[in-house]
């Protein structure tokens, strides 16, 4: 049977994607690891790698097609022994057809059972570094009856279908991938299935794969998603204004996703806010000293130039290590306490926002953080970030100081437990030793998820941050 190539889920929030370009044409040989297509998501343009070998027999969805649902059939690969020219695209909801195999001397097993094309609203696959398409194979009649429905890994004979990332995580954790319950298309095991098994202790090292779906444990029921309030429809809003007095700007995928996640965040995350002022005189003096010490190339360009935001990221990362209970995220029925400080950095781009994550920021030097943020911000503006570069993290920094904003409240990006809003540094008059004094200061506001960070804990985190900002030499040792 031909191998189905499905529209992959390139990010946790992706529901549809644009098939921007095919990098292979019909009749080309495809090897595992070959880049076969470019997919545009609401966040970026990503390359899709092959995980199976064969000949690209049929392109079902032509390049340039927009809004292709996740898990929809986009192409067919002829496997070894199949004639690519004889493979035809299936009718809607059908399976690809191929000529029956030639009869062997011994009686051949019954023809494989046709697998129906997965629906667009099937649970999407995992977001790994290089996204791969799902493979849908069929077993001979006997094994097919045993492996049908939602068995662990949807085994075909002795083969278990799982994404490369899921296999790697299972291998590193020392568990048998075949004992994990798959939730992907046709029972395929994806990243979240392995992590769920690890958290719940459902998968065991060395466990034998489930023989049939009937013997596999039923997935635990998930809590119902909260009902979100609906806003006025387009026609209702337009009726409030005179015809011709406005221009309609259609939403692109990124803006739709941002709107959806912001509404979910404000309606499902109980925000509260803590603000304080940080003096910057010592930090600005140290920043100038460090930047002046930077080496220069033959054109006189310095090797680095630290920004105030680089110090803010480093200070928040160290503060999270000093107040570890605040370095946490909400996970529905539990709290996950992070070992490292993975700090997101809000980057404004045309039409939206990215939040690339600086991993293990507490371990990195200020110059390393500065270089990493510059690199990721540049690629974010070109929509070339990989999903793993803008997912995860326990907190984020949103800095509007360069626009002269004194203070503001940022919206938490779930599942983060906090986000720090940074205002402009400015000269202010304060009282020191009973007398007025002029200092340079900025206001920061910490938005907290009250389910994860209580008021006293948030205040402790901000106090640790303030101490580092006002005594910045502590970030250099």
UniProtKB/TrEMBL annotation:
Catalytic reaction list: N(6)-[(R)-dihydrolipoyl]-L-lysyl-[protein] + acetyl-CoA = N(6)-[(R)-S(8)-acetyldihydrolipoyl]-L-lysyl-[protein] + CoA
Biased composition (Low complexity): 89-120
The Peripheral subunit-binding (PSBD) domain, residue ranges: 161-198
UniProt EC number: 2.3.1.12
Acyltransferase recorded as keyword: yes
GO process annotations (BP): pyruvate decarboxylation to acetyl-CoA
Pfam family, one: Biotin_lipoyl
Biased composition (Polar residues): 147-157
Domain Lipoyl-binding as annotated: residue spans: 2-78
GO molecular function, one term: dihydrolipoyllysine-residue acetyltransferase activity
GO cellular component terms given for this protein: pyruvate dehydrogenase complex
Xref: InterPro entries: 2-oxoA_DH_lipoyl-BS, 2-oxoacid_DH_actylTfrase, Biotin_lipoyl, CAT-like_dom_sf, E2/Pdx1, E3-bd_dom_sf, LAT1, PSBD
Cofactor(s) recorded in Swiss-Prot or TrEMBL: (R)-lipoate
Region spans: Disordered: 84-129, 139-158
Cofactor binding mode and count: Binds 1 lipoyl cofactor covalently.
Keywords assigned: Acyltransferase, Lipoyl, Pyruvate, Transferase
Glycosyltransferase is among the record's keywords: no
Purpose: The pyruvate dehydrogenase complex catalyzes the overall conversion of pyruvate to acetyl-CoA and CO(2). It contains multiple copies of three enzymatic components: pyruvate dehydrogenase (E1), dihydrolipoamide acetyltransferase (E2) and lipoamide dehydrogenase (E3).
Description of how the protein assembles with itself and partners: Forms a 24-polypeptide structural core with octahedral symmetry.
Protein family per UniProt: Belongs to the 2-oxoacid dehydrogenase family.
The name this protein goes by in its record: Acetyltransferase component of pyruvate dehydrogenase complex
């Amino acid at each position: 049977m031909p191998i189905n190539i499905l529209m992959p889920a390139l990010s946790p929030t992706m529901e549809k994607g644009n098939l921007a370009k095919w990098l292979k044409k019909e009749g080309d040989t495809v090897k595992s690891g070959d880049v076969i297509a470019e997919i545009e998501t609401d966040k970026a343009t990503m390359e899709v790698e092959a995980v199976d070998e064969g000949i690209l027999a049929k392109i079902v969805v032509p390049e340039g097609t927009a809004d292709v649902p996740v898990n929809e059939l986009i192409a067919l690969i002829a496997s070894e022994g199949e004639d690519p020219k004889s493979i035809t695209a299936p009718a809607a909801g059908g399976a690809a057809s191929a000529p029956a195999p030639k009869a062997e001397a011994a009686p051949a097993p019954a023809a494989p059972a046709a697998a129906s094309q997965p629906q667009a609203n099937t649970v999407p696959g995992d977001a790994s570094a290089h996204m791969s398409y799902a493979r849908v194979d069929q077993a001979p009649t006997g094994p097919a009856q045993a492996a049908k429905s939602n068995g662990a890994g949807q085994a075909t004979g002795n083969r278990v279908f799982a994404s490369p990332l899921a296999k790697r995580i299972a291998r590193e954790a020392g568990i048998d991938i075949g004992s994990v319950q798959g939730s992907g298309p046709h029972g395929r095991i994806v990243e979240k299935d392995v992590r769920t098994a690890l958290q719940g202790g459902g998968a065991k090292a060395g466990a034998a794969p489930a023989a049939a779906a009937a013997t596999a444990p039923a997935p635990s029921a998930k809590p119902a998603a909260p009902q979100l309030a609906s806003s006025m429809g387009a026609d209702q809003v337009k009726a409030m204004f005179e015809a011709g007095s406005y221009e309609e700007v259609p939403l692109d995928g990124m803006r739709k996703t941002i709107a959806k996640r912001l509404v979910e965040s404000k309606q499902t995350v109980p925000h509260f806010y803590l603000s304080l002022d940080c003096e910057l005189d010592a930090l600005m003096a140290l920043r100038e000293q460090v930047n002046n010490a930077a080496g220069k190339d033959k054109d006189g360009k310095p090797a680095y130039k630290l920004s105030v935001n680089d110090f803010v990221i480093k200070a928040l990362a160290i503060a999270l290590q000093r107040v570890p209970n605040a370095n946490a995220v909400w996970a529905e029925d539990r709290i996950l306490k992070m070992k490292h400080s993975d700090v997101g950095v809000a980057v404004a781009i045309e039409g939206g926002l990215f939040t690339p994550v600086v991993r293990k920021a507490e371990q990195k030097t200020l110059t390393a953080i500065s270089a990493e943020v510059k690199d990721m911000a540049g690629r974010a503006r070109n929509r070339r970030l990989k999903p793993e570069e803008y997912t995860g993290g326990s907190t984020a920094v949103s800095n509007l100081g360069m626009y002269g904003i004194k203070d503001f409240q940022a919206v938490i990006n779930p599942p983060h437990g906090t986000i720090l809003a940074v205002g402009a540094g400015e000269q202010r008059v304060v009282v020191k030793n009973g007398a007025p004094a002029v200092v340079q200061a900025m206001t920061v506001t910490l938005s907290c998820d009250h389910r994860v960070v209580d008021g006293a804990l948030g205040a402790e985190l901000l106090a640790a941050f303030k101490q580092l900002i006002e005594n910045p030499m502590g970030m250099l040792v």
